[in-house]
Specification:
The structure is a homodimer of 523-residue chains. Chain A is of the alpha/beta class. Chain A has 18 helices and 14 strands. Chain A has two domains: 159 residues, Aspartate Aminotransferase, domain 1 (Alpha-Beta Complex); 240 residues, Type I PLP-dependent aspartate aminotransferase-like (Major domain) (Aspartate Aminotransferase, domain 2), CATH 3.40.640. A seven-stranded mixed beta sheet of chain A has the order 2-8-7-6-5-3-4, sandwiched between helices. A three-stranded antiparallel beta sheet of chain A has the order 10-14-13. In chain A, strands 1-12 form a two-stranded parallel sheet.
């Protein structure tokens, strides 16, 4: 934070001309009578420059929407302008955005949302009664019976009750308390809010935040913003990206030399790595957190996305309670869910929730205070979250269609997970662990020494170089492993499996052809 | 940031029993076979406590949803439980939440939103064609033609174009560039994002952020979160809360002793103070920012809320351009708008935009990077913003109804602004400046010395004491002036004028009766 030269504001010539140079309305000219118009000069020094800006923000990286995605946008514009490419469209496989990939919204969810948005529709015979019932319940809990009012900063009461009931069902009866539920603007908002509260200290007592490597780069970005210390623990690629507690021990031991490790982040099912943690592994992690006095963050947004028949999702909350009161009344845990993933894929609504366990009552007050500064999460996103946790049940009018739609999405995802794993593993120089869950493949790619040299000549990470070439030659946009972190000398990329089956097959074939050519070129 | 004792984690006994104590499911008991259940003990020390938490977050205050609002919630619960009070309902006049106060949504806006939410409705004859046209345009610009996809982090392209076209119309032809428009999660998000980028330095070169006193407490809260320095400039209460540039000069001069003043925040029309700045005043402010090399933040969310016949809204952007190229190609400005205020009052959708002027191209890149970490603003809020800036025009089917609804809301607000000012000024010991704009009264109240003593005995600010008494005796919830800042020795409260006319009259009468009784009691 110390910047001795902060007062020195270095000038930079902007690359674009001042907009005023383009057109000057006569109304404007007229009204400027009070001050005489001075001769036009080139812009003077800017106040806000790369040199003067917040250095912690400058240090933030976020690969999922980083340079490769900007390049993809440029290529799309070139295609629109008719510039010839070896492909006709850009396929944005960089992000888990189901509906952008053609997945249809769950009908029931959108019906309830439309009813909430425009309550006149409650009189329409073309909407089912169970959807109307849900909409009425949500609206009655909203100020002025409207999605347009602010909600409580913690979220609409009845939606928090529905979330708590969902968690209790999911966890086989382990109780959940609506007071421990905070509705959020997507899971990202919850994660960054709780981290914001947790981070403190300076020098050697700065807060260390343990994250998996590979990680979802929200974590590293928020850690950088908050000027906390990122403490890496490596997932075991040779063992299907499993989390090994010995590696946690190594990481925390080494971290204690230079910071105060206080938080342990877990992503289960894994992003970008797709592993689903065993119950035993979760128990070991909780025991470790208990021993080491770590605050647990469990990112469980892919809890509905488990495909391997041998795997099951276990929530940290449930395992914590099953371990007995020594743990369940001591270990501090925040877990996260979202409307964006699962089978509904409602990313745009920015709905989510956080459940906190054993949070000190005074900290709960601090949390509500902090949330209240941003007033409330989007109420439409809260409504979407309600439908996710409170879908039609057997006997209700919409149940059959809802179940069909849900099974179709999840069944297809399971098929695509297997297909992707199988196809990647047929390519020489690509190894792909089983996609047990989530919605990404994170294959390891062999990059020949000559390609590594070429990348260095372009001042690029070797896998960024690889992904740029893939984009330029095939139109397929994936994210280099370096954006998630990986063991040194290994290279990966993350690709979503969300495209429809036939399109996904084409994508995989194209990656295969590209990879073989790439190996030949740089052999 | 230096906290020598950060590693010392002080324990606190939680006030609530661990939830595990309440019920233990048999499934849970069964599954805990792996680890032996240890005897239950009282919880050990918490990791996250008031002592160990982020001190900057602890320092945050946000009065609009602070202790008085928590108390209001408690009283509501007591009323529900049948506890007798001298009133039958709590009136939440603490926040500008139009629809919670019974204002009906603008029909056209909700029709377009419903069509976007559930596109099957595009075939329904009960929706007007102009609403369908808007909905199709928005959907075509969304990934997968769905509000459920992530948008670009800067916002949906066509909505940014519509915002730019709106600004150009509003400002009499001064051009706006869609590249300078960033859609946000309400205005609060835009304001805190740009402040986050602006803040840097340590010690005497920490960033100073100038804010009006009284202010909207988002500003002080974000400044505290970011560990920046709050630099107060006082609005002139004797002169209808006008902004005086000499006071800006005083504030910046004094601030330079201990920080680097880099940002000047303006709220126009004023919140909580309701003044509308004259064109001359805006010109003076811009000249001052230019001289002092300050980055301007113009919070213009009440731009549609101007009631005094003598006042007009002038945007900072327009005045900046009218002042000629010396200013318009140099002064860095970010201005903010929102779906929450105006005549639509769609607070719950969390829609907003920020327009930046003269932002360095490299900083634009940094801004998009930072926004991309949170993926995108809620797409439904973006759609709501689109309708706000692109409403029906003459000749379109919905124009007449839209205009009627808009005029009705704004006409009523103007009436209520005058009514509130007049009634408050009839009360001895209350003085209220004209409510030229926005949606609040911020009357000055006389608090007798005996009441000040009584407040001190309760360890409360005198106006907090006053507002608590008002709440307890009348059910009316307003926010003490100390939550916004005020000159020492003066006392105020903020009350929204949003209740329907008849209800507002009752509220004002109750405040009057309370105030007279209060003066008598503490005479």
């Amino acid at each position: 934070m110390q910047r001795a030269a902060a007062l020195v504001r270095r000038g930079c010539s902007p690359r674009t001309p001042g907009p005023w140079g383009r057109s000057q309305s006569s109304a404007a000219a007229e009204a400027s009578a009070v001050l005489k118009v001075r001769p036009e000069r080139s812009p003077r020094e800017r106040i806000l420059t790369l040199e003067s800006m917040n250095p912690q923000v400058k240090a933030v990286e976020y690969a999922v929407r980083g340079p490769i995605v900007l390049k993809a946008g440029e290529i799309e514009l070139e295609l629109q302008r008719g510039i010839k490419k070896p492909f006709t469209e850009v396929i944005r496989a960089n992000i888990g955005d189901a509906q952008a990939m053609g997945q249809q919204p769950i009908t029931f969810l959108r019906q309830v949302m439309a009813l909430c948005t425009y309550p006149n529709l409650l009189n329409s015979p073309s909407f089912p009664e169970d959807a109307k019932k849900r909409a009425r319940r949500i609206l009655q809990a909203c100020g002025g019976n409207s999605l347009g009012s602010y909600s409580a900063s913690q979220g609409v009461n009845c939606i928090r009750e529905d979330v708590a009931a969902y968690i209790t069902r999911r966890d086989g009866g382990v109780p959940a308390d609506p007071d421990n539920i905070y509705l959020t603007t997507g899971a990202s908002d919850g994660i960054s809010t709780i981290l914001k509260i947790l981070v403190s200290g300076g020098g050697k007592s700065r807060t260390g935040v343990m994250i998996p490597i590979p990680q979802y780069p929200l974590y590293s970005a928020v850690i950088s913003e908050l000027d906390a210390i990122q403490v890496n623990y490596y997932l075991d690629e040779e063992n299907c990206w499993a989390l090994n507690v010995n590696e946690l021990r190594r990481a925390v031991r080494e971290a204690k030399d230079h910071c105060d490790p206080k938080v342990l982040c877990i992503i289960n099912p894994g992003n970008p790595t797709g592993q689903v943690q065993s119950r035993k592994c979760i128990e070991d992690v909780i025991h470790f957190a208990w021993e080491e006095k770590l605050f647990l963050l469990a990112d469980e947004v892919y809890q509905d996305n488990v495909y391997s028949p041998d795997c099951r999702f276990h929530s940290f909350k449930k395992v914590l309670y099953e371990m007995g009161p020594e743990y369940s009344s001591n270990v501090e845990l925040a877990s996260f869910h979202s409307t964006s993933k699962g089978y509904m894929g409602e990313c745009g609504y920015r709905g989510g929730y956080m459940e906190v366990i054993n949070l000190h009552p005074e900290i709960k007050g601090q949390l509500v205070k902090l949330l209240s500064v941003r007033l409330c999460p989007p109420v439409s996103g809260q409504a979407a979250m309600d439908i996710v946790v409170n879908p039609p049940v057997p006997g209700e009018e919409s149940f059959e269609q809802f179940s069909r739609e849900k099974e179709s999405v999840l069944g297809n995802l399971a098929k695509k997970a297997k297909l992707t794993e199988d196809l990647f593993n047929q390519v020489p120089g690509i190894h792909c662990n089983p996609l047990q869950g989530a919605m990404y493949a994170f294959p390891r790619i062999f990059i020949p020494a000559k390609a590594v040299e070429a990348a260095q000549a372009h001042k690029m990470a070797p896998d960024m170089f690889y992904c740029m070439k893939l984009l330029e030659e095939t139109g397929i946009c994936v994210v280099p492993g370096s954006g998630f972190g990986q063991r040194e000398g290994t290279y990966h990329f993350r690709m979503t499996i969300l495209p429809p089956v036939e399109k996904l097959k084409t994508v995989l074939q194209k990656v295969k052809d590209f990879h073989i050519k790439f190996l030949e070129k740089y052999a």
